[in-house]
Design goal:
heterodimer, A: mainly alpha, globular, B: alpha/beta, Ubiquitin-like (UB roll), Alpha-Beta Plaits, Rossmann fold, 29 helices, 38 strands, 29% helix, 17% strand
Chain lengths: 81, 959
């Protein structure tokens, strides 16, 4: 993952959290998680977990709160076809 | 084959439900009250002679040819201006009528040239037909007196004669042939709403004039073609008819430009297209057109079209022409190699919003069943993906709620971030017609678009908000409606979730959402905003139309939800005249979304994680479908830069020019090992392609387009594909090359598969479309006739959902280095990246992109109108010429993105909508300064583009 991609994913995740942070509190973390599950391709989610493990400082508190509900993709798919 | 015949009833239909019975020439006829005698008569199959009447405009009663006798009434009333009455007894042919008509006709012909054999209207001239109909045999007055026909008269110049005006690139105006019936003048007023034409002079001196006695191209004329269509003689004639002659057969098809989806008759002579004429029965356009659909089809036979497949090893090599088989084999082996080397998810495809539903369906099927991943996306990503998300959340469907006819019943129309008279001109004309009848208009746009003030139309409110503050304005409107008690409680209790409403109402009622509080942020005066909110909530049927000025923002999806909230809170959903209507940019954006072009959705907006949906397709396709969402276009480019995405099949889409942050797109494309571009032209993206597959135009294939009102319209093949294959055949052959056993013989079979798998299309088939003309989805057992209006008895998702919409400022901020905000848009004569319209005569109206700058900002920087200026943002810089205008507010600059040499997207940033990654085209912080010429980037880009378009054995292709 390049530096650019790292920053971009953090930015995107925080932007999603920015919206859900304004929603009723009970739905906020779940909202972030289900949005990311629904729209982020596995390699993006995998990279998000790498960020969480290596350098989570940039992630907003709501993203951190949502992480347990975000589906962790299996290791990089080596399937060909 | 023959010409599609349309009956001209002479006057428009009456909408009355009260019926009236009368007798015409002994036939008893029952028609709606308010119908003219002329129309009633035509209904019965009796054609009364006429010249100044045609059913596209109101009756005028000037030609005196359509006279009739009515029992018990004196004189000879004109049948066009006389309404029917119960028990009326009408004669259309008596000796007295015959004499009077022949006399009238004699006068007309005494001032008309007699060059019928060499006249372009020969075979399509109503004057000639009427002379025949009334039995004109002699013109007793001779041709020597005063006339408008001869350039020289009695040895001297004839002051009454005027030369032919050939200034418009598409039609000519020959005053010598004009009978001053004023049909063109009325068409311009009533149908188009531009008021560019007038009758100047009086009596025998009266003549048609464009603007203030100007030539057509210098006048306000927008070249929609309505006058040409209305003209009964050769006075206004298409240049193509003058050049080719009259057509001999025609077919009804659908325009391939904007999302209005106008129906046209493609009028042909053999395989040569003579002209495109709007079809009266077209339910989106009702017989009207704009300059693009009517005239700008020349690109389809432009010399730049590439007709042979081409391959190259490296993007720095010249292209090498190959056979189709070689091209398919090459793509198949490259894609397989890449997948072996980098994994299954390392390739993907982009479907086209310009291609048919059937073609789009095949591309996503190729990706899902052939590439075995969900890496498919479409150009809607960069335009209306927030509409899909936002309306899906609020209402449960990703589409507009109304048909275009609905505007005829609107009382208050709100336009947000859209410029219908330029971007969706035929809808713009229909809207203006309603506004002239008295409907009120609210425009929310940073720029004073034409519709804010144009002839006989003036917005009640124009809220010139600062770019990027949509959500603050929308939420403020809601604040006024809620706090002033203007909401529709009965509707909300019945249709929406009341507790969600209460939560939302408390949210919008917070003081920081009041117009007084948001004014500092948005620049919209509080009183004005309050007035607009009150008008929308209380003015009767309120309809919202919006465009990319809503969606292309960091908060695009939030604004769409805010719009849905406004419609629900005022009860403006579920009947004619109201609703939420996204104006779609391209002809088939709606369709490409419907067809499963998004990486997370199968056809019919069903998420890939839904087992039941996957099961339907897996059984039919015989493969396992991934249950994980794929990459969106910007994600593909990021992954390419990262090295995990290596191959792309792009059908009919020019991401290098149309997507934001050009340098990033270029870097992504350059990092890929096999880019396949399938297009009519070597577009900008093809500069980075390894394989080029020539595409076919909309005239060369069968299929369907779905317009902004969910209307599925047929596209009909009127000529053979110049490149050999329709686009669906190319995708099919590519699929076969990678080992898929596809065998569609005709696009109708693809539609049958769509109908079999997608509930909202269940009843759609080519046979059914033939019978119905067109249908609006959902079209299934529950809605066999289709669905002109949605959410009639309840929302698709059950209860309408109110969602809190907090304003969050974009991170793209102005500052000392970049103090101005750039926003972008389009212009009437050009379309999208301009690949089509730049290759037509439309360039006479817009040959370059200009930067609109407010006089105040220009003055400060020493910029004069027409000067070259450098436009800089954090992403890059470019140059273009300035246009000084107060249409934009101080602090805001504006440009179009139709020309590749301008490269407006070098400037735009990669900020995007939080929910969908739809790019934030509409807000970029910039600086503007005087300049001498192109920037280094433009020079380099131009050179790279030139190099990459070389074809071995051919002279350099010109743009």
């Amino acid at each position: 993952m390049s530096h650019g991609t790292h920053d971009k994913l953090v930015y995107m995740a925080n932007q999603i959290a920015g919206f859900f942070a304004t929603q009723p509190e009970a739905e906020a973390a779940q909202g972030v998680a289900s949005h990311i599950n629904k729209f982020w391709e596995p390699r993006m989610r995998r990279q998000l977990f790498e960020i969480l493990e290596q350098d989570a400082n940039g992630l907003s508190p709501l993203v951190l709160q949502a992480m347990p509900s975000i589906r962790r993709p299996s290791a990089a798919s080596t399937d060909i076809i | 084959m023959s010409l599609v015949h349309e009956i001209d009833y002479g006057t428009p239909a009456s909408a009355s439900e009260t019926m009236v019975t009368l007798t015409i020439d002994g036939n008893e006829i029952t028609v709606p009250e308010g119908t003219s005698i002329m129309r009633a008569s035509m209904d019965a199959g009796i054609e009364i002679p006429k010249l100044c009447a045609t059913d596209m405009v109101d009756a005028f009663g000037s030609c005196r040819l359509c006279l009739v006798e009515i029992q018990g009434r004196n004189g000879l009333p004109a049948s066009c201006t006389t309404p029917v009455a119960a028990g009326m007894v009408v004669s259309t042919q008596t000796n007295r009528l015959k004499d009077v008509r022949r006399g009238v006709m004699e006068l007309y012909i005494s001032d008309h040239p007699l060059d019928c054999l060499t006249c372009a209207a020969n075979g399509d001239c109503e004057l000639q037909d009427m002379a025949g109909a009334v039995g004109l045999r002699d013109v007793r007055y001779g041709y020597d007196g005063d006339n408008h026909v001869k350039a020289r008269d009695n040895g001297g110049l004839n002051a009454k004669w005027a030369p032919k005006d050939e200034s418009n690139p598409y039609f000519t105006f020959d005053p010598a042939k004009c009978i001053v019936c004023s049909r063109c003048v009325r068409a311009c007023e009533e149908v188009q709403g531009t008021f560019a034409l007038a009758i100047e002079g009086r009596g025998f001196d009266s003549r048609v004039s464009a603007g203030m006695h100007e030539d057509f191209v210098s006048s306000e004329c927008v070249s929609c073609g309505a006058c040409v269509q209305a003209c009964p003689t050769a006075t206004l004639t298409e240049k193509s008819v003058i050049e080719i002659g009259q057509p001999e057969h025609s077919m009804v098809t659908t325009c391939a430009y904007c999302g209005v989806g106008c129906s046209f008759k493609a009028e042909m002579r053999g395989e040569e297209l003579v002209r495109m004429v709007p079809w009266k029965d077209g339910q989106a356009n009702r017989g009207h057109s704009c300059v693009k659909g009517r005239f700008a089809y020349g690109y389809s036979s432009h010399k730049d079209r590439i007709l042979n497949p081409m391959v190259r090893e490296k993007i720095t090599d010249p292209w090498r022409e190959v056979t189709w088989d070689e091209a398919f084999a090459h793509v198949a082996s490259e894609f397989r190699r890449i997948q072996y080397q980098y994994g299954r998810d390392s390739i993907g495809g982009i479907t086209s919003s310009r291609c048919t539903n059937e073609e789009t369906y095949l591309v996503q099927k190729l990706v899902r069943a052939g590439f075995r991943n969900n890496n498919v996306d479409t150009c809607a990503r960069v335009c209306h993906s927030p509409t899909g998300y936002g309306l899906g959340q609020a209402f449960g469907t990703s589409a507009g709620t109304q048909n275009f006819d609905s505007v005829e019943k609107s009382d208050v129309v709100v336009i947000i971030g859209a410029n219908p008279t330029d971007g969706h001109p035929v809808f713009g004309s229909r809207l203006k017609k309603r506004l002239r009848q008295g409907a009120k208009l609210i425009v929310i746009d940073p720029r004073r678009t034409d519709i804010v003030r144009s002839p006989h139309v003036e917005a009640a409110y124009h809220l010139p908000l600062k770019p990027g503050t949509n959500v603050a304005v929308m939420t403020s409107l809601a604040h006024v409606i809620v706090t002033e008690g203007l909401f529709d409680e009965r509707f909300i209790r019945e249709r929406c979730d009341w507790s969600e409403f209460e939560d939302w109402a408390a949210f919008v009622a917070e003081p920081h959402h009041s117009p007084e509080a948001t004014e500092a942020l948005t620049g919209v005066p509080a009183e004005m905003l309050r007035g607009a909110a009150r008008l929308y909530a209380t003015g009767g049927n309120g309809a919202i139309y919006y465009g990319l000025g809503v969606t292309e923002h960091s908060q695009g999806s939030t604004t769409v939800m805010a719009i849905a909230n406004l419609a629900m809170v005022t009860g403006n959903i579920g009947r004619p005249g109201v609703g939420v209507n996204p104006l779609r940019g391209q002809n088939n954006v709606q369709g490409s979304c419907d067809m499963g072009s998004f990486p997370h959705e199968l056809p019919g907006y069903r998420h890939v994680s839904d087992d039941a949906t996957r099961d339907i397709f897996e059984k039919l396709w015989g493969v396992k479908i991934s249950d994980e969402p794929g990459l969106r276009i910007p994600n593909m480019l990021d992954a390419a830069v990262d090295g995990s995405f290596k191959g792309l099949y792009v059908q009919g889409e020019d991401i290098l020019q149309s997507d934001p942050d050009t340098k990033h797109v270029a870097a992504g494309l350059a990092a890929m090992e096999c880019v396949v571009v399938h297009d009519l032209f070597l577009n900008e993206t093809a500069n980075y392609a390894h394989v080029f597959l020539p595409g076919s135009s909309f005239l060369e294939k069968d299929g369907t387009f779905t317009n902004a009102e969910r209307r599925i319209n047929r596209v009909r093949k009127v000529m053979s594909p110049k490149n050999g294959y329709a686009d669906w055949e190319v995708t099919q052959k590519l699929a076969q090359a990678i080992g898929l056993a596809w065998n569609y013989q005709h696009p109708s079979e693809i539609m049958d598969e769509i109908a079999a798998t997608t509930p909202s299309f269940a009843m759609v088939s080519y046979d059914y479309l033939e019978k119905m003309g067109s249908v609006q989805w959902p079209c299934n057992e529950a809605h066999p006739e289709g669905s002109p209006i949605m959410h009639v008895d309840g929302f698709v998702r059950g209860k309408g959902k109110f969602i809190r919409t907090e304003y969050i400022a974009t991170d793209e901020r102005t500052g000392p280095r970049f103090p101005l905000l750039l926003t972008t848009g389009r212009i009437l004569s050009q379309y999208n990246v301009g690949a089509q319209t730049r290759r037509t005569e439309n360039v006479v109206w817009h040959s370059e992109d200009r930067l609109e700058v407010h006089p105040h900002d220009a003055e400060q920087r020493g910029i004069r109108d027409g000067d070259w200026v450098k436009l800089m943002s954090r992403s890059g810089d470019t140059t273009l010429r300035a246009l000084i205008t107060d249409r934009v507010s101080p602090g805001v600059v504006y440009t179009t993105f139709h020309h590749p040499d301008t490269q407006a997207n070098v400037i735009t940033t990669d900020f995007s909508d939080w929910a969908t990654n739809c790019p934030e085209y509409k807000v970029t912080a910039v600086q503007v300064s005087p300049s001498n010429g192109p920037t280094d980037w433009q020079v380099e880009y131009d050179e790279q583009a030139r190099q990459s378009r070389r074809i071995t054995g051919k002279l350099e292709a010109a743009e």
